[in-house]
TrEMBL record:
Membrane topology: Multi-pass membrane protein
Descriptive protein name: Polysaccharide biosynthesis protein
Gene Ontology annotations for the cellular component aspect, listed alphabetically: plasma membrane
Native species: Desulfocurvibacter africanus subsp. africanus str. Walvis Bay
InterPro entries: Poly_Biosynth_Transport
Keyword list, A-Z: Cell membrane, Membrane, Transmembrane, Transmembrane helix
Length: 424
């Protein structure tokens, strides 16, 4: 199937949904960045990066195996598998909550008070944030785009209204913004589980049996995703360490501007990842190569205009949206715009390797990216601040993307050689 035909069909709803989801997250950063102290924005940014790390853990160990194996199942087996991932998510979230609570208590004397408060807040809201993300991604895995669009529309209204009420009552802070995000998870769970109660069957015995299947693939997805995310998400923490939380706030504002592109980038990713799995399950590897190459070309054409827009107008947007104190950070936004092109390519080849059950190969590519972070990346942050963060992320992603492409091509050659040998 041609990628552009896909974008003109069901995935259009995915783009609309991601637009709604991104507007809600962008509005949260604007509320905190514009109406709170710059240090408060830095604390929110650190908390948000930590959330992304934790959601990546759930994505790797639970959601990615579900998106790959769900299309290969049918009937009651699908219902039980869906119930199992909710039990897996609950157990994972409880472990994470305990770790965050212990970290806030034991590391308190060495942490900034604001960072300590963020960790404590996340310890009791992360369960609901993870639940919301699980429901969204389960809908994408099942190609139920209309359902997730409906959910995200309601949740966006709830989230923005909650932030406005906090602001009106003088209660807006990094911590209360995260609490509002957690409450949206409660809303999502109530709506989706009631609507899908006939298609979800909970069985602890079945869930424990599914753990082995998820871990077999998920361990490499997790390790790969963990290295990739650490090499990205630790940058703002290093920025706060080498400089200050205000510098992390500048980075958070730049991320907010780049977030304008999220409706397209994340929307396509949310649709394309499960679509790859369904495509591979139906047709095998035979037509898979053309689908992936078409996806890469379409991704580039979609992202290029946005990257150019950020290059020429990023600094003006920073001043307009976040205020005067952020107006000298244009180069950060420019470099991050270029990084969008690189990460789009890395996603296509990385997810293709996941679907082909070659997640270990993707992990090796991210080892190289993480090695770059531990060496040159840290030095760039120390020397150049937020600009160094943007440079480090872009160069590290470029390394990983190049390696994933080489591995993908290698796997295709191996398959073609095996097919040719079988017909000799």
């Amino acid at each position: 199937m041609n990628m552009m035909r896909v974008l003109r069909s069901g995935s259009f709803l995915t783009l609309v949904d991601q637009g709604i989801f991104s507007v809600a997250n962008f509005a949260t950063s604007v509320f905190v960045g514009r109406y709170c102290m710059q240090e408060e924005m830095g604390e929110y940014t650190l908390g948000f990066t930590l959330i992304n790390i934790l959601l990546s853990l759930q994505l790797s160990l639970i959601v990615t195996p579900y998106s790959i194996y769900y299309p290969r199942r049918a009937g009651a087996d699908r219902y039980e598998y869906t119930g199992s991932i909710f039990i897996h998510s609950l157990l994972l979230a409880l472990c994470i909550s305990a770790i965050l609570l212990l970290a806030s208590l034991l590391l308190g004397p060495w942490l900034d008070q604001g960072v300590k408060s963020i960790l404590f807040t996340l310890s009791y809201v992360i369960l609901f944030i993870m639940l919301r993300d699980l429901i969204r991604r389960a809908c994408f895995a099942r190609l139920e785009i209309g359902h997730v669009l409906f959910l995200d529309g309601i949740i966006a209204v709830f989230q923005i209204a909650g932030l406005y009420l906090l602001l009106r009552n003088g209660l807006l802070s990094a911590e209360t913004a995260l609490i509002i995000m957690g409450l949206t998870g409660v809303v999502a769970a109530a709506i989706w589980l009631l609507g899908k109660r006939g298609e979800v069957r909970f069985s602890l015995r079945k869930a424990l049996g599914e753990v082995r299947i998820s871990i077999a693939l998920g361990k490499w997805v997790f390790l790969s995703g963990l290295l990739w995310l650490l090499s990205i998400s630790l940058y703002p923490w290093l920025l706060a360490f080498f400089h200050n939380t205000a510098a992390a706030g500048v980075w958070g504002a730049a991320m907010g501007i780049v977030g304008f592109a999220n409706p397209v980038i994340l929307g396509v990713q949310n649709y394309l990842g499960p679509k790859m799995a369904h495509h591979y399950a139906a047709d095998g590897i035979g037509r898979f190569e053309s689908f992936i190459q078409g996806s890469v070309r379409a991704f580039f054409l979609l992202v290029l205009p946005m990257a150019l827009g950020l290059w020429f107008f990023g600094e003006n947007l920073l001043f307009l949206i976040y205020g005067q104190s952020y107006s000298n950070s244009g180069p950060v936004v420019q470099i991050m715009g270029l990084d969008m092109i690189v990460t789009g390519t890395a996603f296509c080849y990385g997810r293709a390797l996941f679907v082909m059950e070659k997640a270990k190969a993707d992990f090796l590519a991210n080892v190289a990216s993480f090695a770059f972070f531990l060496t040159i990346g840290i030095l760039l942050v120390k020397m150049y601040g937020a600009v160094g963060v943007a440079l480090g992320m872009m160069l590290g992603n470029a390394i990983a993307s190049s390696i994933k492409y080489v591995i993908f091509r290698s796997q295709l050659r191996i398959h073609k050689a095996a097919v040719a040998h079988a017909y000799e």
